[in-house]
Amino acid sequence: MSLTVNPTHYTPLAFATARALSPAITAQIAAQASSDSAGSVSAAVVRHLAYDKCITTGDLIAQISPNYRGVVGPLIREITDLAEKRGNANSSLRKLEAHKANGTIPSHLSLRVPELQACKEFREKGTLGSINSGIKTRVLEVEKGLLDEAIKAKKAEIELLRGKLSHAVLVDTFTSALRLRWTDVKADNQTPVFRYYKTVAGPEGPTKVASDLWDHTDMEVVDWRVHEAVLKEYADLQEDALPIALRAIAIVENAQTAMQAKIEKKKGVQKTADAMNVDDDNAAAKAVGEAGKAGPSVQSLVDKAVAGKVKALQAQVQKLSLGKTASKPGAKKSTSTPKAKPGASSTTKTSSAKKVEKKKVDKPKKKSAGPDKGKGKAKASN
What SS3 state is found at 191? Predict the structure, then answer.
């Protein structure tokens, strides 16, 4: 697939190429290629492009040759740590300078203002108020002095970190570490130097005669030397010390810049939301003032709506309960006595009252005991 058609395929391909183009591989290629200046510059450009494609510290360490990775890896992490500290110090300095420009004091530098107490007469007619005002003014002056000293200290910290990350210090640190490691690498990568010869019979016996590679009968080791690829690898890492260190610093600074932009964007959104809320509150207050009095609260509206719904439901429930009672087949009839008609005679009322009274007086008679059957008596003997 073409890279110009779909640019998203460029990123993983570039990272894979960057990891493959390690200094060890480029050293071997450069050792076999011609030793002209153009070829050397091209190899250096390829290596530097590989470093620039790294987006994390781990990617950058992976570009280092395995022979020197154990030494250069900790150096890269130390450089990123110093770069992160310098970025944090710069951020703190910006905040302190913003406080000074706005006339405010950061919370970690603010002091408690003491307030003197006195009797009522001295508070009302004495100079207690002016004394407390003078104390507050002095405390404010001390806080401003502390802010100036904090800014001065933060600038000194940044200057110290800047010195540790200067180009000269970085190159010296890298080359010193590489030089110590080079002693072991050189001892572990010795290659033999052979001498080719032919054995010729002579008057004094067999004699060794020097020969070339293609016309020899035997060979022997006459010397040991370091392989050309190992030499080139060491030289390339010394030349790449500064680009590697600068890329490590750039990785940290890019991450901090992205984080700062994200924080600033979040603060901007929060300020916009707060401004919109203030405008809404002002508009509501203005509307209330124009109306002359505040309208009903939300709670009162909710209570009113709930009460109306409950009342309607109660009426429906009452209707349903009455309908069910009337439709039952064994429902009792009403026992209430019918009202007397206006034209009825008083004699009817009197007779009915007497009947009721008679019923109350008459009581049911007890059953008489039956004849004694003589239970328990023995039979008469003859």
Answer: strand
